[in-house]
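Dear colleagues,

As part of the handover before I leave the project, I'm documenting each prediction I ran so the next person doesn't have to rerun anything. This entry is a single chain, and its sequence is reproduced below.
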Amino acid sequence: MTQLPDKMRQKVIIETNKNITREINNLIDQGGNGMKQPEDMIMEMFGLKNSGDRNEDYQKKRESLMEAYRLSGVAKLDGVVEYILELLENSVKLLIFAHHRAVLDKI
């Protein structure tokens, strides 16, 4: 596509919904075995650390992580919409990608 400028990556700090962020932290804490960091949960699930057999505990951790991931999109919704509106008000051309259905629907 010659009409688009070169890809420009940037990190934008977006305000999140504090209630949903608290819920995400609770889900991560429920992941079990004292793990607090999502990275640790992911590494264990994919066998990058000693995880033992995949059992009910594994399934519970996986479900908690997937719900936390889904909620992370919802927690950012209002901030994302505000940022996009700001860009559009300043006539900035943009291309938007999103993973979560709720985010796509709101945008």
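Residues 17-75 form one domain. The chain has two domains: 17-75, 77-107.

All the best with the project,
I.
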